[in-house]
Every structure is written in C-alpha cells, then in structure tokens.
C-alpha cells in the first residue's frame, strides 16, 4: 500500500495544457456553423487578449500543443500563455486554417 502511494506521489503533474476556444455567433446552433467562423467579434478579440499573447507559430520554440511551427499548416498564429510554471497553448477556432470548399472542416480544425 505504501509503495503504491509513493508511486502516485512520484508521478509528474502535467504543466502543459492545450485548450480549445470556439467562437459562436448569435443564432449559431451547430459546431459546424461555429467552426466555419473565419473571424471573431471585437468582444471575442478582447477576450482573447485577456487570456494570452498572440504568437507567430512559425519557429515558435515553446509548447505548441501539436500546432505546426514549420510550415503554417495549422495556421500562422495562436494564443499562448504562462501561469507560474504552467504553459498553455490555446487552439482558437478563428486562427485555424479555413476553406469554404472543405466539407471536412470540423474534423481538420484541431479543437
């Protein structure tokens, strides 16, 4: 019993988090509608400013939560924050790549 408790104590606690943020306009009811928003409102942008810093993904060296930092395949920017020794990368739906002709949009937008 004591050995098992010690093992629990030794387990590392994650200090890196990926959090998805989805913008919903008035009258939108489905995820598909929300994922198809290319831009947020001024209030949404203000909210994002409160959460973290907009960062350029290309060559970003800190925690990137599976976002591409080589060739912009997951967008050019994202939102990053630190709190004490915790790193947070936000996957913001309006910052992820968008294509009007892509019916797989919901699956490909990494939230």
Please tell me what the overall shape is: elongated
Distance between the termini: 39 Å
Alpha-carbon Rg, integer = 17 Å
Query: Structural class of the helices, strands and pairings?
Result: alpha+beta
Description of the molecule:
- The chain is of the alpha+beta class and 111 residues long.
- Helices cover 25% and strands 22% of the residues.
- It contains four helices and four strands; from the N terminus they run H-E-H-H-E-E-E-H.
- The protein has helices at 2-10, 31-35, 42-51, 105-108; strands at residues 16-21, 53-56, 77-83, 86-92.
- It has a four-stranded mixed beta sheet, covered by helices on one side.
Give the structure's gist in a few sentences.
This protein has 111 residues and is of the alpha+beta class.
Q: What are its keywords?
A:
alpha+beta; 4-stranded mixed sheet; 4 helices; 25% helix; 4 strands
Secondary structure topology:
Blueprint: H1 2-10, E1 16-21, H2 31-35, H3 42-51, E2 53-56, E3 77-83, E4 86-92, H4 105-108
């Amino acid at each position: 019993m004591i050995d098992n408790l010690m093992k629990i104590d030794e387990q590392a606690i994650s200090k890196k988090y990926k959090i998805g943020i989805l913008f919903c306009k008035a009258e939108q009811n489905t995820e598909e509608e929300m994922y198809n928003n290319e831009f947020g409102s001024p209030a949404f942008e203000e909210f994002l400013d409160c959460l973290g810093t907009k960062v350029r993904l290309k060559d970003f060296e800190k925690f990137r939560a599976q976002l591409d930092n080589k060739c912009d395949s997951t967008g050019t920017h994202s939102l990053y924050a630190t709190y004490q020794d915790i790193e947070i990368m936000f996957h913001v739906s309006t910052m992820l790549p968008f294509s009007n002709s892509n019916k797989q949009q919901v699956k490909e937008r990494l939230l």
